[in-house]
Amino acid sequence: EAGVVQSPRYKIIEKKQPVAFWCNPISGHNTLYWYRQNLGQGPELLIRYENEEAVDDSQLPKDRFSAERLKGVDSTLKIQPAELGDSAVYLCASSLSQVTQYFGPGTRLLVL
Amino acid sequence: GQQLNQSPQSMFIQEGEDVSMNCTSSSIFNTWLWYKQEPGEGPVLLIALYKAGELTSNGRLTAQFGITRKDSFLNISASIPSDVGIYFCAGSLLKKTSGSRLTFGEGTQLTVNP
Predict the structure, then answer these.
(1) Each residue's pLDDT tens digit, A42-61
(2) Residue A93 in contact with partner chain B when CB distance is under 8 A
(3) Is the Cβ–Cβ distance between A40 and A89 less than 8 Å?
(4) In this complex, how many residue pairs, one in chain A and one in chain B, have their CB atoms less than 8 Å apart?
(5) Which of A43, B7, B56, B102 could form a disulfide with B90 if both were Cys (CB 3.0 to 4.6 A apart)?
(6) Mean pLDDT in residue range A15-33
């Protein structure tokens, strides 16, 4: 069984540029999560989807971050414009049970 | 909000030694998860605990869900070099309306000297 797939694995951009990350969850998992992980810290939830509905986006900085999961399968997280402080690892996870979450390898973003 | 204190922050041990790390929370959880993260990868689930007092093993790993529901510990016996990585605890309080939000500790960096 394939795991959670994310792309790109690495991204380097200049500040004020836009950037997008893509995630394909484990087949059949209806719940999808986006996390941000800063260096030396644990992941922090940005947004959670149940199928195509964003059911928990309270920690998503909505002035510059947006996400979508149009068909309830894969998802895109966008930052526009990026700031220096957005440098982090962006992790996607999926689950079937809502509790046991399986993570992808992450996208490492560096904003210069 | 909920906060998890994970300790120790780092450990340097010799191959063959046993390791113990723990997490404490300011509030109760009804699920505890332990993950391991290696450089350049996402966290990988090691053990899931769903019931207060539960003791679960996965090979050389053993984890327990504290009886107060505010803590959990992870033990690794007879460590080997491939145990190197960052170990995260995560707690969840499944809510009927908002679903499950995992709160992560800050991780324990484990180094094993051969």
Answers:
(1) 999 999 999 999 988 989 99
(2) yes
(3) no
(4) 63
(5) B102
(6) 95
How far is the C-alpha of B102 from the C-alpha of A59, rounded, in Å?
A: 13
Optimal mutation site among A32, A94, A103, interface B, most CBs of chain B within 10 A:
A103
| Contact (CB<8Å) B88/A44 | no
Please return the burial class of B109, using the count of CB atoms within 10 Å of its CB with bins 0-12, 13-18 and 19+: middle
Hey, what amino acid is at B53?
A: G
Q: Is A93–B42 a contact, with Cβ atoms under 8 angstroms apart?
A: yes
In which residue are the tokens 């999560």 written?
A33
**Residue B35, both tokens:** 């993950």
Amino acid at B87: Y
Whether A24 and A74 have beta carbons less than 8 Å apart is answered as yes
| Bridge-based pairing state of the strands B44-49 and A107-111 | unpaired
What is the Cα–Cα distance from B62 to B86, expressed in whole angstroms? 16
Classify residue B83 by its DSSP letter.
Answer: G
Q: Which residues of chain A from 4 to 63 reach within 8 Å of chain B, CB to CB?
A: 4, 6, 31, 40-45, 48, 50, 55-56
- Walking along chain B (114 residues) 10 residues at a time, the average pLDDT comes out as 84 96 93 94 93 95 95 97 96 67 92 93
Backbone angles phi, psi at B49, to 5 degrees: -125, 130
